[in-house]
Design brief:
Number of helices: 8
Oligomer: single chain
CATH topology: de novo design (two linked rop proteins)
Protein name: LemA protein
Number of domains: 1
Keywords: Membrane, Signal, Transmembrane, Transmembrane helix
Distance between the termini: 97 Å
Family: Belongs to the LemA family.
Radius of gyration: 24 Å
CATH class: Mainly Alpha
InterPro entries: LemA-like_dom_sf, MamQ_LemA
Subcellular location: Membrane
Order of helices and strands: HHHHHHHH
CATH superfamily: LemA-like domain
Shape: elongated
CATH architecture: Up-down Bundle
Structural class: mainly alpha
């Protein structure tokens, strides 16, 4: 009887070693770490916005509507509370992603409008902030790509046999991933105009 019990325990241990439980833990931690870096870079960008706005305000005739949109987009993006559970809640994840997309769009618009102001373009502080912002946007892209890769690895494990059985038993659901906002809009080629603007 004792031998049978030890045999069952050994069989259970051997079956668990191939079930992917430890791999789920490892990949879950990797995705959380990658997500933390995404948040870190988003925060870095949000911290730049007040300095950019303050510098642009020095240009007396600058479009107030553009500045207001940047300020509002930053407020919205930073007001969303993000927790580790956000990764497992597609609705909350999408809401956060949408707010960050609005901030990206507002900042892009601000940089385009700034091109019309020679004094602002010549301002060293603004040029430095612009370079820092561009570097931050690149860091965001790298961090998002790492997160996408870590989530893909986790989701493949959660959907593959036999580890999908472990996922069902322990409620390891596939994680939400970044999606492209305005997918139809970006699939349309941009209009390029090489004509010289009238002075």
């Amino acid at each position: 009887m004792m031998m049978k019990r030890w045999f069952l325990i050994l069989a259970a241990v051997l079956s668990l070693s191939g079930c992917g439980y430890n791999q789920f833990q490892s990949l879950d931690e990797a995705s959380k770490s990658a997500w933390s870096e995404v948040l870190n870079q988003y925060q870095r960008r949000a911290d730049l916005v007040p300095n950019i706005v303050a510098t642009v305000k020095g240009e007396a005739s600058f479009e107030q509507d553009t500045l207001t949109k940047v300020i509002e987009a930053r407020a919205k993006a930073t007001s969303i509370q993000v927790t580790p559970e956000t990764l497992n809640n597609p609705e909350a994840f999408n809401k956060f992603q949408q707010a960050q997309g609005e901030l990206s769009s507002a900042l892009s618009r601000l940089m385009v409008v700034a091109e019309r102001y020679p004094d602002l373009k010549a301002n060293q502080a603004f040029r430095d902030l612009r370079v820092t912002l561009e570097g931050t946007e690149n860091r965001i892209t790298v961090a998002r790509n790492r997160y996408i890769e870590s989530v893909q690895e986790y989701n493949v494990l959660a959907r593959s046999f036999p580890t999908n059985l472990t996922a069902m038993v322990f409620s390891y659901k596939p994680k939400a991933n970044f999606s492209v906002q305005n997918e139809a809009q970006i699939s349309t080629p941009p209009t390029v105009d090489f004509s010289t603007p009238k002075k």
